[in-house]
């Protein structure tokens, strides 16, 4: 959500497809998007017709754990693509050919991972500050 906010991506009313159903990333990000008034579809690697579903998405979050699983021609022109995957060989869950179609796309490495670390550090500093001032 921080990445979307940093680039002024308003998710309200937009169709978001989350590919991945893990309790650590897929389900929580789906709920965060839903809380911001996105219409959310949760899919996974076994979803029938996955490419067609992804082609309808304004926002795609890939957290499926399979290298280059999401193909570039699945991406709707101008869609925002968040690749939360990190696989052997420094590749994400999205084939970077998707960049040709996407309006915005996170790189792997260098996108979601460093942002996650920065947010965790920020929260740690905030918690320590609250503890010291308590």
Automatic annotation (TrEMBL):
Gene3D superfamilies: Leucine Dehydrogenase, chain A, domain 1, NAD(P)-binding Rossmann-like Domain. It is an enzyme of class 3 (hydrolase). Residues 1-130 form the Tetrahydrofolate dehydrogenase/cyclohydrolase NAD(P)-binding domain. Pfam families: THF_DHG_CYH_C. The keyword Mitochondrion does not apply. The keyword Cell division does not apply. Keywords: Amino-acid biosynthesis. This is methenyltetrahydrofolate cyclohydrolase. It comes from Lentzea miocenica.
């Amino acid at each position: 959500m921080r990445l979307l906010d940093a680039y002024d991506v308003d998710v309200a009313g937009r169709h978001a497809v989350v590919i991945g159903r893990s309790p650590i990333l897929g389900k929580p990000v789906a709920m965060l998007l839903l809380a911001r008034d996105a219409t959310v579809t949760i899919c996974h690697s076994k979803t029938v017709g996955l490419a067609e579903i992804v082609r309808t998405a304004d926002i795609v979050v890939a957290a499926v754990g399979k290298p280059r699983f999401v193909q570039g021609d699945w991406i709707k022109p101008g869609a925002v693509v968040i690749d939360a995957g990190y696989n052997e060989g420094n590749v994400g869950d999205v084939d970077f050919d998707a960049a040709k179609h996407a309006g915005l796309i996170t790189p792997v490495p260098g996108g979601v991972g460093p942002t996650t670390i920065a947010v965790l550090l920020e929260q740690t500093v905030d918690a320590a500050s609250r503890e010291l001032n308590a």
